[in-house]
Batch of 4 targets.
Target 1
Amino acid sequence: MQTPENYVNERLDHLGVVAGVCEEIGLAAYLDRLAGETNRHVSIGTATVAMILNGLGFSNRRLYLVSQFFANKPVEHLLGPGIEAADLNDDCLDRTLDWLYAQDPTQVFAGIATQARKIFGVSARHVHVDTTSFSVSGAYAGDESAESEESVIAITYGYSRDHREDLKQWMLALATTQEGDVPLFVRPLDGNSSDKVTLASAVEALHEQLQAPESEPSFFVADSGIYSEANMRRFNEAKIRWISRVPETSTEAKAVVETASERREWQDSEDGQTHWFTCIMTLPQGQERWVIVRTEQGETRARATLKRQVDKAEHRWKQKLWHLSNQSFACEADAQSALAREVKGLPAWLEVQSELVSSEHHAGKGRPRQDAAPTRHWHIQATVTVKQPQVEQEVRRKACFIVATHVLDTSILSDQELVTTYKEQGSVERGFRFLKDPMFLASSVFVKKPERIVALGLIMVLCLLVYRLAEHRLRTRLAETEQTLPDQLNRPTARPTLRWVFQCFEGIELLHIRSASGTQSFVLRLQPMHRLVLAMLGPPYEKIYKTSS
């Protein structure tokens, strides 16, 4: 009697691309070498890759539901023979998180990122550094006690980037390359950490990590939170190349910005959208090159913001002067004193024009006696007007910002490259937006122990690393081969987002046909667009989506 055929469908979708990147950078092998010989059915490396697949599956499933996520996925095809969805339970993943924490997640990620950057050929000439916060729900009562380990982060209240001051939080320091937005460094931090301290130590650690005899030294780019006399002196002594925005709170910065509009040495970019001039500043920490920048886009924003402020201020001052005009004064001196008191704090772009008017009044009711002397009262008639030239001057002042570096030689770093590099600080911000996506694994952190939050931070940034590497290679090779993919509006683009590519891969299935003669596997619904993406990524990725027998 002939054995009936058995059909099994499994959802492959875009997970083959994710698994392919993990395989190419040797992520599981790297972690398994660190772990050494273990008796675990699911190795540390395999469990970590499983959590990355879950995170980049954008299914918003908590860790204890990972096995449910893999229930209809080709687990053996993605993770290796002998692995089943039931093996990826919360006990397996919790033990993996505990192991990752014990190995120092910052060092673990540094090793993986360095290996991945070399394999994918990503330049680290410009590295952007910043911090963000992640809110958590729960008491975490014991996190701030003196008995807790010094290496465990404190889940506590602090300045929230998400405007959730009512919740406790933890913070994350992240560094990404300008080329491809690829993360190179991660460090979980206390919820109330200061940028001036944490960013400086992150830059120093990353400087040590990236030092190599054959490579060009990196430029480390940060916002004004890192800028201080002490930090810049530390960087200069360590010969760290840095680029930072200068906070406008210092006396030197205020003086430079105030006189910026009077300068004649402004230079313009080729597109006319950016304007700048340079000052060499001698400061306690050493000489620095300050580039004062004004952009057309920033000027438009500053003009819109100031217009709202001017309208509100004009309305408020008109009300104040109306109330003042309804008061009467016994003498001219009293009226002038009252007017002087009222106009204190008047913005420079408002002007008050006033006139003192006197009038005579008789006391009491009815017709006064013929010999009664009238009493003289003084009133203020005042109007407020907007001084438009001063408004424009203020707009230009507010649109200016200062970018500084200790590299004085423009042949190493030109003024325009300095400005352009700082404006790419959005590289690390895009990484934070990715990590905080509502559909992402870590959008809600529900692990109980701070140690596992630290380890989960590592998983989050490993997901970002895999995502950015695949996106960077796809965009690079599309540009090299002058090919395009259709975007959401079916327009050709050579810079698709990997999220959109992942959506296009939805519905791809792996069909297994089991019979007495053996098992055949077929990849279903693979279209020419999918094949082009896989060809751009490389043969290992094509192999994952290739029909096998």
Target 2
Amino acid sequence: MTRATDHHLPQPGAVRHHSTVNTVEKSDLGASPFAALGLIPELVRAVAESGYTDPTPIQQQSIPPLLQGRDILGCAQTGTGKTAAFALPILQLLYGQKLPAPIEHKPARHPPAQRKTRALILSPTRELASQIEESFRTYGAHTGLTSTVIFGGVKQGPQVQRMRTGVDILVATPGRLLDLMGQGFISLRDLQFFVLDEADRMLDMGFIHDVRKVLAALPPIRQSLLFSATMPPDIEALAMTFLRNPARVAVAPVSSTAERIAQSVYKVGKNDKPKLLAYLLKDPSLSRVLVFTRTKHGANKVVKQLGDAGYRGEAIHGNKSQNAREAALAHFKSGETRILVATDIAARGIDVDGVSHVINYDIPNEPESYVHRIGRTARAGAEGVALAFCDWDEQGFLNTIEKLIRQRVPVIADHPFASAGGGRGERTESAPRPNQGARPSSPSHRPPRPDQGSDRGQRTDRGDRGSHSSPPSHRPPKPTGRDAGGARRGDGPQGDRGRPAAKPHGRPSGGGSGGGGDRSRGAAAGAQRERTDRQLDWMKRIT
């Protein structure tokens, strides 16, 4: 099913004007596969005008039971048409109900009965809420039903005014919804349909308590739906708290990725990721690229690095104002911006046709986020490419992702910035500082007394600092610790290493005092005693 490209995002609280895309003959409506699902001509016409041709598997399984009034527990990978799967039957069921007519006998000053909110769709992010409301407007173009979207980050005035006018369908994020409910601007007592969309992301973002508050405010008699891209046990437990004997629909294994997405990973050091990204962007086949980072600061940094490399990109994350986020997304949709850098907060709300490549600049630490990220490409039956940059310390995240999706992600090693072990060679131990360990920090680290029978670890080419027993030109060396093998390093000249050991406190032995050998041994013993005294004197002064 092909989806028409959107060129703008709706402003929250604004009045919705509907427009058609294509002209469809009424005679063709009855032959549409959507008509075979039981949809009324008004909806089939809107679907055809939007460019849809065939329903997706999730739509084929969800629409009939929803039209029968059953609750739905749906699980499908992203980009498979979950929004249309619940929007079309809700629109049809609301359209089939007669709206309250104005009371004729009352004076003219009394306005007609206000529309009541009869359907609520709860979404985790602003972008996704805007996309859902836009879908309701598109599909309901010929029904006369009204809709609006409310979310935080903008002034509530226009949203409050729109709710006072009355709407049939409300799409909201949990925070702003509870805020306006607390102020008395929104009432859910007439609600007939409740949809919890992207439930797993709702829990990941910490909205579980807000969701429970909304559930507590719902009327007991209603039709409820839960749709999610993944179905962990926590989601099923939550679903059982408000769904009644739901029909289960699933079109792919839990936490699977789209088959049309070609996945691969580049092992690259962290410092080389900007260079690799710029290198890949030289390929013109990367026509519309969505780059995901782990943090907001990282997204801004990537945009700056792209600018330095000559590529224009825009960032979208929670620290951006709503106007800036909508402008960046609109530029990306229209093709004005080739590269959009986003965080996981926006992964579920980016529904853009023609995304050629999704690049995981940072491997997500939550494996489910990987599924949602790469689901931004290969949407509506198209094909796409998902690339990942993996540093050595992200290998554990990659292993968890492969376990979740039940497949190995191929590694591309043929690139200029390849590094063994995913960049393991980029990280090296810091070199020791010069003279490290020269000054012992505690008595347990003090160097031992030199062996009196050997002159290893002693130097004769440096003078003593402040020694009273010899000229300043003969300074003893500082202890230099031990070498990598654990043995003491020989600090003296190589000539000293070869000299015979002398007895430092003994007298020359052997022949007479005038013998040349005795004099030589006596001189060596004196030099040894002098060196030892200087060493001990230096140690006393520093300790």
Target 3
Amino acid sequence: MIDADALYSSNGLSATQKELRTFVLSNFEAFIRLVAPYQMLAHCHIDLCRWIQEHEDENRLLLWPRDHGKSRYSAFYTCWCICRDPATTLIYASATAEKAEEQLRFIKQILDSKVVHKYFPELIHPEEGKREAWNKTFIIIDHPKRAEEGVVDSTVMTAGKDKTITGKHCKHLLLDDMVVPENNTEIGRKEVNAWVAQAASIMSADSSILAVGTRYNPKDAYQIMMDMIYYESTEEGEPREEIPLFTVMMADVEKDGEYLFPRQQRKDGSWFGFNDRILARKRAVYEANNQIVQFFAQYYNDPNDRSTSPISRELFRYYDKQLLEYVAGLWTVDGMPCRLFCAVDMAATSYSTASTGSDYSVVIVGAITEDGTRYLIDVDRFQTDKISRIEQGIENMWRTYQFSALRIEAVSGFKLVATDLADRMVTKGIRVPVDVYVPPNTMSKDARVNGILEPLYQGGAVYHYRGGYAQMLEDELVSINPLHDDLKDSWAMCNDIMKTPLRRKIMTHKNVIQYHPRYGGVAV
């Protein structure tokens, strides 16, 4: 329990008001109701307040739909932290400096309100001109506790992703909508992810992060946060336990017709929240701008709209893998002769940085029969930073299946590696045609992959085995923006090099002599 009377004077406060002040410093919801009586708190917001408070010492990630008040509650949390500990330091970061400064204006509005001056009088000087720092980019409050503890950093400093914060320190790092449409590109995501990683590095041992935002892409900064883990120390000989670095609170705009923030009216007549009509209007705007995938990302935390995927789950067909046989030097599937092909998608991943968000290398084998039917045969998927591991994966597949041809994709600086791999195959006795494939720049990767696979699946020409990596491949196929696309990409390459086996001519011999029906003799 925070001793409010030790931090602030009680001039003019009744005993009840003093009790209230002590209570709000230990209850986030009550604090909001005191300093912002105009704020509409739905059940979801009350749950949010409790979640933020219960996990106060942890890193927290809030993924809520747009227009649900995430940024406002981040600002309220900032004010609560300051009132509870006037010596605290915070960095409030957004995708742009303008967005962060906009939030700081709201924070200043709360801290400079009559109710805050009444209950927390020593926090800031009543005259703006006599405050230590009170501008649009940072503020320093005037409470004497800062001087007593020798605090140097600003109480609140704003930052956009273009601002360097090296050398700064903070007790709380607020990340408010770091991912926005403007940086939702491959380069933009790398810049945001790098900034977030650098910002996290300045945190002290007892610091915490509160990140709030909306999904835009399977590989955005929020996915990286969800994938981050650390290892809990255990007794010697016991396996280390993986612990998520962030505690996550995630919710969709609605589930089975029940809205996270249902439409409701405030006492002054203003309306807030969602219902079917409001959500339908928002969806219509996204559809009109050909952004339906973004609608599902921002309102359902799903960066993929399965309804627009060119390959749906209904198109998947299955076969029994036991039907694949090798008899007398010939591969068959259910008795039908087939040829096997292999494709390799390479990705370099350091084990020190490997996580579920890192890329994978894939060695995949498929088969095609005389009638053009294709079968997924086997998959080897792994993370590695060693070419020898990729080489071993290819060799293992060759020893098992003796495929007819091999394609190795050569992108992102892998052309020399791919050429070297092709040469190594010969030294290992793997003498098959090797295609070192450089994808064309005339079309996007998605267009190229879908152009190969979509007509095959639409035509019912592809069969999978059940389970294992086949299931992961299917998840990639039905996603517009899968977190990983290595299986999908390698499977497209494998299908692209497939050629049907030559049809065998079957000679039939008859021992019946035919005679000409009119003239007799042997018919020719």
Target 4
Amino acid sequence: MKQLDNNLEQRLRKRIFDLSEILSRELGMSESDINGLVKDSEPKHTYIKETSTQNTGGNVMVDFVELKNGNVIGISDDCVVLYKSKDWWAGATESKALYFDEIGD
């Protein structure tokens, strides 16, 4: 990572301090809430873009993990399914399933 020159670093720290003051004074945010904003904006995973849960019909709940490359992993209580894209719902994507009962003990 490139080193900031001293002047730029001081100006940046001042702006962060000013923003923290505004969030605290105007919105009543605590220091930990303000620090949490910065942490929440940092990438959490290397490969995962987002996760969601959907009822796929018949009250079958499936957790979906969308990867940054566009592939999707579907996880239910009996299998894991790999999809080439988010278009799985329309049947417009290839998939492969691995059933837990086929793995053995």
